[in-house]
Amino acid sequence: MTAYRRNEATAESVEPAGHAGPQAELDGSIQLDYADTYADDTDADTGTGNPDEPDYTLGEYDLSDRAALRRIAGLSTELTDITEVEYRQLRLERVVLVGVWTTGTLTEAENSMHELARLAETAGSEVLDGLVQRRDRPDPATYIGSGKAKELRDIVAGTGADTVICDGELTPGQLRQLEQVVKVKVVDRTALILDIFAQHARSREGKAQVELAQLQYLVPRLRGWGESLSRQVGGRAANGVGIGGRGPGETKLEIDRRRITARMAKLRKEISGMKTARDVKRSRRSQNEVPSVVLAGYTNAGKSSLLNRLTGAGVLVENALFATLDPTVRRAETADGRVYTLSDTVGFVRHLPHQLVEAFRSTLEEVASADLILHVVDASDDDPEAQIRAVREVLSDIDALDVPEQIVFNKADAADAETQLRLRSLVPDALFVSALTGTGMAELASLIEAGLPRPDRAVLVLLPYTRGDLVARIHADGEVLSEEHTGDGTLISARVRSDLAAALEQFAAAVPAGER
H/E element holding 409? Predict the structure, then answer.
């Protein structure tokens, strides 16, 4: 078993509400200053408070709320007259990571473990140690084998860890037997990702989708009461039922399963109702023939930052995995005035739990129905090729491989020249941009404009000056090729949709042969 260790576990200091500034590293703890916490609060709804403070966008409010201190009423034992500043220490959950390296190179296995460490930190834990074992396949009993499980138990005891996180999806038997050996809680990669989704889901639909995925994961992993209640009894002990009669332990599990099944049915019904509302909005856009562009890609690749750059959406931006889960749709315009929608979707990750793909299917359908997918890749990542493969696997699961795709390498400012050269050889037609510095954003806007479907009807119309409404519709919904103001009205050559072309028929002039 090969082990690698992190140099130092870090935590972020919590700034007082209403202040901004870099977060300083502390030695594994967070110092909370209660005296200054609420000194400069500003009411977000009324705008009252300090007039010199900047106006925050919705995403900045979300980020501030996520990092803010929360005071719990009734827990203070201090006197009314506070003369000293009280400091408290927040203890993070301490975890040890373990993985099984079955295929690929050692570098790929270590990259997967580093990503698991970032996931664990995002979930709010402190990573103490990480170990990887070379095996042909995971052990069916304890995932890493009985001998290595005992070694892991000694490491857990030596580090004082609370939890073991495995880099893979464990069966219920593997979870139970590994816990019996290491004597601490064991979770797998799937449970870790589900926990992060549960923390970051904000909308009603997002919370319902995450809960459904968690229940789907939980059903086969329900556990009884151990030896305190019999699982099965027989003969007279079962009141005449005979061999195979169910005792109280089995009855408890069956009750849990029925309750979970009923809750899952209710959640599916709620999500189906939300999907109907989403489909109605999508059908209206389709009826109006509004093109759709979707930002898809690996988590923390910078999709929300690009959305803010292109549309000024103001959604939450944070250097963390799965910082935003709820899809965001914003209206945008090309340089020639054509309107389209730009959608931000949930980020993907290696081995994305199939429960999440199924639960978020109604949301991910936005990708399959798009006119163009901007596949955003982190150019500064250690293994961007693996990111591309992971995203395309999910696109295949939701039947979106037929949609035109354009790869966009974001964070080009953080990638060195050698990395960019390698990526250009890997994807020759890719575009390199930086949402942070604005590099390449003009080229990205031009690329979107070229990739959008164009109106299919060419018209040449002479509109009287009393029909300014039709002129406005042509500018809003069509593509104006030329416009000239004459004594009889406005002569416009444009490409428009079929419904607008029908409204312009009575004002039609001869269409030039080159524009047919």
Answer: strand 405-410
